[in-house]
Amino acid sequence: MSFSLPFGEGRGVALKFFNMRLTFLAFLLTVFLGISGFAQQKLPSVIEITGSENAELSPTKLLDVCKRQHIPASSVYRWKNHLIIYSVFLDTRSLLRQVQATFPGTEVKFYGKPFYEFNRRMCSNSSVAKAWDNVIISANLVKDSVMQQEYMKYHANQFKEWPEVAQGFCNASFQQLLVFRSGRQLMLVISIPKGASLDELNPKTTENNPRVDDWNALMKKYQEGLPGTKSGETWVFLNPVIK
What we know:
Number of strands: 10
CATH superfamily of the largest domain: Dimeric alpha+beta barrel
CATH architecture of the largest domain: 2-Layer Sandwich
Oligomer: single chain
Radius of gyration: 25 Å
Strand content: 15-25%
Number of helices: 8
CATH class of the largest domain: Alpha Beta
Distance between the termini: 80 Å
């Protein structure tokens, strides 16, 4: 015996089935985008404003710019005549225009994609702290272009040829470590669990791990201080404007 639905009822069932398929496909797409977004989460960038040697740049003005761009006040850091914003920028061009208009006569630099990235996925314990503090330091590469190329090559091959360095970062509970470059200047951002102390964590990178000491000694010859640093000083700390 054959059985058939009236045309109108059959179309209703078909539409219901079609809508169910669309809902399921939308769910799969949401899951995929969520996973993809997690795996390819956009990294922060850096914008730096540098005034003349004796200039006092106003962090209040930069905080106002950040507020208009919906950037947290905790993203602003300072060292002497240097101000920086470290954050994920939704509209980089607009932000750069506002910064340049707010600080005329200064040098404004954008540090986009970092050339070096360490994260917890490289650790046997890949768990990530819920909240981080970011420690930001800066230095220059030496002027010798050949040595600059050597420095970049060492970092490109570090995970393969110097795996002990990343292991040291894992041991020290570093959550992420990014290195940016603009011209000769380097920006190093070390993310640690919120409330932790870098002074307490950093020695763990070299504990029973002499290769990290070797790496640090090797890198010193490629680095020098920014203008305004003291004799013998290389890396300087940019401190949060809002603590």
